[in-house]
Amino acid sequence: MKVLAAGVVPLLLVLHWKHGAGTPLPITPVNATCATRHPCHSNLMNQIRNQLAQLNGSANALFILYYTAQGEPFPNNLDKLCGPNVTDFPPFHANGTEKTRLVELYRIIAYLGASLGNITRDQKVLNPNALSLHSKLNATADILRGLLSNVLCRLCNKYHVAHVDVAYGPDTSGKDVFQKKKLGCQLLGKYKQVIAVVAQAF
Amino acid sequence: GQDPLFIFPKDKLVEEGSNVTICYVSKSHQNNISCYLEGVRMQGEQLDPNVSVFNLNHVAFIRETGTNIYCKPGQGDGIKGTVLFVSKVLQEPKDFSCETQDFMTLNCTWDPGSDTGLLKQLSQSYTLFESFSGKKTLCKPKSWCLWQVAPESQDMYNFTLTAENYLRKRSVHLLFNLTHRVHPMAPFNILFKNVSATSATMTWKVHSIGKYYTLLCQVELYGEGKVTQHNVSVKVDGAHLFSGLEPDTEYLAQVRCANGDYFWKWSEWTHQNFTTAEAAPSEAPDVWRNVKTVQGRCVVTLFWKPLSKPQAHGKILFYNIVIEYLDRTSVSEVLSIPAPASGTELPLNQCSSQIRITASNSVGTSPASVLVVSREPGNEEVEEERVKGTEDGFPLSWNPQPRHVTGYLVEWCEQPRDPPCDLQWKNLGPNVTSTVVSSDAFRPGVRYNFRIYGISTERVPYLLARKTGYSQELAPSDNPQVVMTNLTSHSFTLSWKNYSTESQTSFIQGYHVYLKSKAGRCHSGSEKAVLSDDVVCCKYKIDNPEQKTFVVENLQPESFYEFLVTPYTSVGEGPHDAFAKVTTPDEYSPTLIRILLPTVFCILLIMITCYLKSQWMKEKCYPDIPDPYKSSVLSLIKSKENPHLTIMNIKDCVPDSIEVLNKQEGTRKSLTETESTKPTYLYLLPTEKRYSSPGPCICFENFTYNQAASDSASCGHVPVPPKAPPSQLGLLTSPENLLKALEKNYMNSLGEIPAGETSLNYVSQLASPMSGDMSNLPTNPPEPALCSEYKMQMAIPLGLASPPSSGSSSLSSITLLDEGEHY
């Protein structure tokens, strides 16, 4: 389910762009000139690779922390509750051109960033004492923000891409507690799977 | 929706112990849907093919984040679930109480019990309501709340405390008079005034609770292990006098107060330390002495024990010693020994003296301890008795003294093995005749010596008894160092004189001498004993611990023995680990040695004498040149055979000449190949008619020869011509050449002797045939015999000098000098 819901956008703006990663894409006009607020790093692709490797290295630990904190039946029914069957997750083609891969990476990061924000919010309520999980979620969101900024820089400077259409996952705020836990687990399972492929592709 | 399965209710909040019904609705007619609560399958009731219900009774609180309930169909992966939030039951607040410290604020406290906060429910809240005033306040803390007291107008308060959460509300009530709920604050500003050695005044202040109220304060004093308690009524400031205190002692004083009109609660304690002033020491120091004589002069070593804290009444600074000589001939001496010394050594001018010892601190001086030193050493000949130590110490007793004593004293050394021995003493009253000496320093296996003194009325100590013993006797750990002497074929002596019986770990009762032998027989005086390693040996027992020698007898010659000397005590023997080995000698060896040694000595003496006098012996018995005058043969011949024989006088000896046939070197001729050689004449001594002749000649003055003898002697000694050809000299001087010459002569002798080839060989009889180059002559056997032949040194007529028999082969071959060729 692709959602370009107007209610989600303000939340995403707060979560992803507060550190000056770039101009918010969804509201950028199609014909706007490509410009970044800060000069891009000279060794941008290396930074992107390192950030991807960092995310890939911590994804499994985050997944384990999450399903452990949810209690039964999650740890013993990972395939049924935490399987990576997120249907609206942005695709990624590892054999595409660098530009294509960067655009797809951008969509994935934007999707993940929004979903991770929802998960972090829910877990602070559902599991207020799971401090390790909270810490890991925040650290991952921080890296994602930096990565999004770098990818935008690369797209803008090298490929002059100023606008990428992005999609976000479902908003979990209205769902029941069990559903929140399950959606979060599925998302993190998918994230663990995708980030390995993406990190390998770069 | 599109989901095939629904579970209800969603996120339900219930109280612990409630009954809950869970149901699911499925789109398809599935019968194999199973539902679980925290992993445990629930048994439900199927209402129709699509709906089932599960009744949960008395649900329990599991965690604040809720209880997961989920259902999963038998096929597919669509797990659906819900979370049930089970809250703890809200409890009634316990121990609700209110009190004031200052009549301005009421502090109400309670025990809230368990927290009922959940994800779906906040923790319970508390509200305080006072019915008389109608005021209400929300208490943010969960266990206490402050209430502002209405000034002067309200004494009675009726509080209702209400606890409330999402599910329940609980209330408690409290009615009280404010003046009955006064909990004063802790006193402050404690001070001590007029602190002396035995008293001090403590003052303190209290927080006012109003001019109409009196406080009751409790004062406690801790010191010297004791506690004293006093109650004091206080309006504003409190004061209390502590008396009967110990000097120079630290005390802890503390005070607390409560409402004196209506007791509710004590305040907290406020405490402060103080120390009383010093006072003069109250007791004389406990002093003892040791008297010895060094170079005729009495030397007293004083020991004293430090005064205890209750006795010292302060820090002891000096120990003062006054020596007064009893005969008044010497001036008294005064010494001051700085603390913390515990003794001193004093050389006395005279032995008879009285010593007074006092201790001083910053305030004053203690009473004096008096010791009298007497020239008489006391009864030192007191017999020593043994005492057995127990776990409690050494029980000592002595006979009461007929003369009046002021007390008794027991002295001992706590470290008897390590000088200084840490002298200890114990003062006892005049009516005491027994005591138990105990000390943590006493060790098993250490011998302690005790001396018991009586102290006379003149303060003169005299020795009453000596005791010695062990707190616990231990078996000897070492055996004596044994020396073996006087080893014979039948006995040997063992000696261990260096073994001290005094410094052992128990009283030595005697010794056991163990003897191992192959024979295994034990003679009288010994008994068979089996050692720990099942070895049988003979055991000799020595009952006297001071007997430190033993003769082992009845041994077999040339036999191997092992022996061990070990002390035995009441608690056992020494170790059986180091047997010494000995082998008895042969029985006859000593006798043989007695004979052989003198014999060898005598032989050696004779040999040495002979060696030293060899020259004399040689001259006497076998001189190289016999002296005819000394020859006994001569006298024998003279007397029996020829009385006319006389010894040739040297003057009668006419020098003769020797003809030497000078032949060319290397001219060895065969017998058939004769070569005439021109003879060369060598004159040994110039004859009268040739004195003037200039021919080459060498003259040998040989007084032992006469002509005839020389003619008949055929020796290889060749006279060397003055100008002899080198070849001829070489032929004669080297042994090889000489050998050749001899060989040649020998060869010649085998055949016909040509007249012209004879040569003269002359050997002086002064030379031993076996000496010098002639030693090589044995290669030609017949020749040396001739050369070493000794000719009697007699003057005999020429006619008698006949040549030796020509039949003798070798001799004839050498005797080449023809009579006709002699000059």
Automatic annotation (TrEMBL), chain A:
| GO BP, sorted A to Z | blood vessel remodeling; cell morphogenesis; cell surface receptor signaling pathway via STAT; decidualization; embryo implantation; fibroblast proliferation; gene expression; immune response
- Tell me, in one coarse class, where this protein mainly resides: secreted
Gene Ontology terms, cellular component aspect? cytosol; extracellular space
A molecular function (GO) held by this record is: leukemia inhibitory factor receptor binding
A Pfam family of this chain: LIF_OSM
Enumerate the SMART domains for this protein. Answer: LIF_OSM (SM00080)
Its localization reads: Secreted
Similarity annotation? Belongs to the LIF/OSM family.
- Name used for this protein in its record: Leukemia inhibitory factor
Q: Which gene encodes it?
A: LIF
From TrEMBL, chain B:
Subcellular localization is given as: Membrane
InterPro entries from the xrefs?
A: FN3_dom, FN3_sf, Hematopoietin_rcpt_Gp130_CS, Ig-like_fold, LIF-R-like_Ig-like, Type1_Cytokine_Rcpt_Type2
- Can you say what this protein is called? Oncostatin M receptor
Family, according to the entry, reads as follows: Belongs to the type I cytokine receptor family. Type 2 subfamily.
Biased composition (Low complexity) is annotated at: 801-814
Q: Which organism is it from?
A: Mustela putorius furo (European domestic ferret)
Q: Record's PANTHER family?
A: INTERLEUKIN-27 RECEPTOR SUBUNIT ALPHA (PTHR48423:SF1)
State the UniProt keywords alphabetically: Disulfide bond, Glycoprotein, Membrane, Receptor, Repeat, Signal, Transmembrane, Transmembrane helix
Is Transmembrane found in the keyword set? yes
Q: Which SUPFAM superfamilies match?
A: Fibronectin type III (SSF49265)
Question: What broad class describes the main subcellular location of this protein?
Answer: membrane
Q: Start and end of every Fibronectin type-III domain? A: 186-279, 376-474, 476-587
Signal is among the record's keywords? yes
GO-annotated cellular components: plasma membrane
Pfam families for the chain = fn3, LIF-R_Ig-like, LIFR_D4
A GO molecular function term, named singly, is: cytokine receptor activity
